[in-house]
Amino acid sequence: MSLTSDDNSQRTTLSTPLPEECIQHIFEFLHRDISTLHSLIRVSKTFFRIAVPLLYSSPFDLLEFNQSWSPHERTKRHAPLLFLLMNCSLQDQDQDQDQKQNQSIWIDLPPVCSTFRDTHWRLQRPLVDYLALYHHHYLGMNLSSTFPIIFPNIQQYSPPSSSQSLLPNTTVTMFTRNEIEKRFLLHQPDHIKTVSLPIQRFAAFKPIVAQLCGLVRFELLGVSWHFDLTPAINFVHQHSDMYGTIRELKMTGPHDVRALQKPTLIEMVKAIRHPRELDLSRYKEATKDLNSYEFQNIAGVETLLFNLEYIPPVSATPSALQPNFPPPGPAFATAVNSLSPHHKDLGLLDSRTDRTLDEQDNSLRVIQACTGLRHLQIGVNSATAFSWALDKFNNDPASVMQLQVLHISSNTTAIIKRALEDCLRAFQYTLRDLKGISLKLSAAPLLSHSFGWDWPLNYLTTLSLKGELAVWFDMRSLEFCPKLQELNLTLHPFSPPDPDHLSKVVLAPHLKTLSLVGRWSMTDSVIAHFGAGLLRLEKLVLDRCQCDDLSVDGLLQGLDQMTQLKTLQVALDECFESALKKYGLSRPELKISGDGEWVLVQQ
Questions:
Q1: What are the pLDDT digits (tens) for 415-458?
Q2: CDD domains from the xrefs (predicted)?
Q3: What is the pLDDT of residues 37-73, one digit of tens each?
Q4: Residues 6+ apart with CB under 8 A from 499
Q5: SS3 string of 16-51?
Q6: Both 102 and 22 in a single domain?
Q7: Same domain assignment for residues 200 and 249
Q8: H-helix or E-strand containing 599?
Q9: Residue 89 domain boundaries
């Protein structure tokens, strides 16, 4: 009897519904997985109630990032979603009743297409105020693309004269888009956390944005040399004085290197009272004035993102401490040959680089002061750019900033190699994501071209190397990354790879993602090594690899061993295409995609 009682008790325990608090935590963990969240909203009322606020905090992300929908389906759903949110904005309690009944949605806008309105009549009276959940104003898809569906006769109307006084030469399409977006922002202005606007339309939104008392992130897009940033700077100053909540700034700027006059960002950065994140990854020359930036609270900065394709020029002002060395002559080669292998491996092959090692490198002086930095992305022009971090680590490891994500680039492979080695030492106890990019090939072969480490990186989960640096990488370093789950190796188009290089990838047996892009030598032996050694691999990318020594049978046999594989992206010779299509039918759980020409997905 006791056994039966225990068994019944266990069954009762297992059938008990999961506490709502647990469901809440699970959904918050999935908040970036839009497809999964959307598929769960119909499971139960509880799931709907918890998932909907996460989905509609940035509703248009549902269309842009839901990978379970085809591009055609996402586009088709765009207009109904916009119509739903427009009708939600009419649910204001103080809204005039006559305006609620007006079929033009809002008085100043063109009338909605009657056929579209009748087809989507259920969306006219939403049971849930989805717009009250709206937090992030970022419209990745252009609203204007839906206007031919919702407002087919829009070109027959003209914007009111009041809008022309604010923004001259405003078209009716631009006016309609501005009015819709402003209404979204004003529905629950204290809920808005992010505003993302093109600088061309900032003037239309300036009076509205000032009412957003909870604004945390300000994104200004499309900045070019002929735009005046003064209104935006004044807005940030005004908002900081009134609320002081803006902590994140994103600017996208000019990529035209021919433009001599570019808006400076110094005043914009200085205007933020408590900066936490500065994203200038799409403002190409932002690092040119890096050491001129002034932060009101630099210790609170956690994220700094700069463009990895732009390397700031080396200062032309000669240092009083730097003597002018003559060009290296025959004696230099003799001296280099007398160096130990360790010193050769450091890449100290040029006296012009060597002479700076004993001096203080101030190229990243602002970065040094960001003691709370967690995420850094930047291009460097000096091999000793991070020597300050290594010095701190050697003196007191606890004094080093807790950097977790580091993405750096340089034009010269020897420079990026040395900078990465300093970082790997200094941040070895915190680093989780590392990316190194060498933008150009070396002008001449160096005596030594090895990049790696022989100390444990116990927290590193993602490693990405691009350019010549990927060829230099010593795969034996993977033995010291016990938690590495993602490895991305991308070759420069003219980099000759080592034929035996890839067989050592299995030294990272916990890999879940492996991406190989470029002229990597793919053979039956390499694929067999992957199949036998990477038993947890879930995603494999083989893009433009050399496959002269790879057979169809060898590829398929290796894939058979990868039992956990869920995604395979290949861009190989055409002879593999038909075989992989047929192979995909036997593995319904595997998504196989080609080079933009064919996709096989089994659900």
A1: 999 999 999 999 999 999 999 999 998 876 655 578 999 999 99
A2: F-box_SF
A3: 777 777 888 888 888 888 889 888 777 776 667 777 7
A4: 521, 523
A5: CCCCHHHHHHHHHHCCCCHHHHHHHCCCCHHHHHHH
A6: no
A7: yes
A8: strand 599-601
A9: 59-298
